[in-house]
Request: fold
Amino acid sequence: MRNFYVDLHVHLGSNWRGAPIKITASPQMTLERILVEARERKGLDIVGIVDTLGPSVQEELHHLCLKNILQELPGGGLRHKNGITLILGGELETREGAHFITYLPNLDCLKGFAKAVSPFITNMNLSTQRAGFSLQRLMSMADAYGGVVIPAHAFTPHKGVYGCAVRRLGELFPAGLPPSLVGIELGLSSDTSMADRIAETHQLTFLSNSDAHSLGKLAREYNIICCRGASYEELMAAITCTNGRKVVANYGLEPQLGKYYRSYCSACGYLAQEKGPVISCPRCDSDQVVLGVRDRIDSIADWARPRSPEGRPPYIYQVPLEFIPGVGPRTLARLLAAFGTEMNVLHKTSLRELIQVLGEKIARRIVRARKGELPINPGGGGKYGKVLT
Ligand SMILES: [Zn+2]
Ligand SMILES: [Zn+2]
Reply:
């Protein structure tokens, strides 16, 4: 068994004819560009694209298979000729008002599942559409096609299930969380220690994915899994901790850098600084507050401190290079030319190697960012946090 780098939440901006798929994603996010960028610049082994339900995307996938650019794997997933594995997925909003991603093993299952959900969705060609069914219903439809459902960005105020719909997933399953609910995506503004303050998450695997809407943001969060190969079956075995397969580490943003870390008052523009939970504005008293993930977890947690279950993998912070002051597109290009992938720069290169390419000031910043030593102005209300120097 060996380690694989995995990012399971990537959006598709447009299809091969240039028509929009996920409206808010960059039109440069085409299937082929994602697969090339994810492999060659980011160094990923598995990428999950969450906008593949539409007929035009399915058509494109079939076309790429016919041309042998993609190949369906016996264990599920599609292998690009550059070596990366594509996992098929669809992000939908259920009746609960939250986003869930369904991952599917192959094109036949994708087709069947898409057909099953299409009567409940107004426009199948666009992504992250509102569907008129419950999470339970979604899970049983996914199950019928070998699929697995994962709550997306679970704690964010914008369509995260804990963030805006329920205080406990158990509220949606009176008989207890079903075994088919295997994991949750933490989202950019939270991490393992925050999520492990809620007892019921102990039976769920945590995933850290980028939710990338543009190429540069691919792999800003990712997972390392240990398994036998980069296929759908092996991935699911890792997520469910089966037969020795497992998620060995989550890599992600320091939550304070996320867009929804603290509460933000949309009436007066105040970003909470006081001890949480802040649920109304301390400055103008308004209750028009975009709840921060920190504030939400503070208000619903079972425990004041995290109690991680045994075997919970470590959560390792990474400050994406674009967040580091002084690293612009030109510096980034120089780094990639020297060290191959962003992951090498972020985690593997030594200070001395960095200094040779960048000069001392920025090289030291990258190393301090690695150690979590750079001070941060927290994000909130849809605005990223900022790294200070
Ligand atoms: Zn979403
Ligand atoms: Zn206010």
